[in-house]
Amino acid sequence: MRIVIGGASGFLGGPLIAHLRDQGHQVTRLVRSGSPGDESSSWDPATGRIDQVLIDRADAVVNLSGAPVAHWPWTDSYRGKIHDSRVSCTLTLSEAIAAAPKPPVFISASGMSYYGSDRGAEELTEQSTRGDGFLADVTHDWENATNPASDSGARVCKVRTSLVLHKDGGTLKTLLPIYKLGLGGKLSSGDQYFSVISRNDWIRGITFLLDNESTSGPFNFANPNPATNAEFTRRLGKALKRTTFMRVPGFAMKAALGPLAGELLGSLRIIPAHLETEGFGFAEPDLASAIAAALR
Question: What pTM does this model have?
Answer without folding.
Answer: 0.94
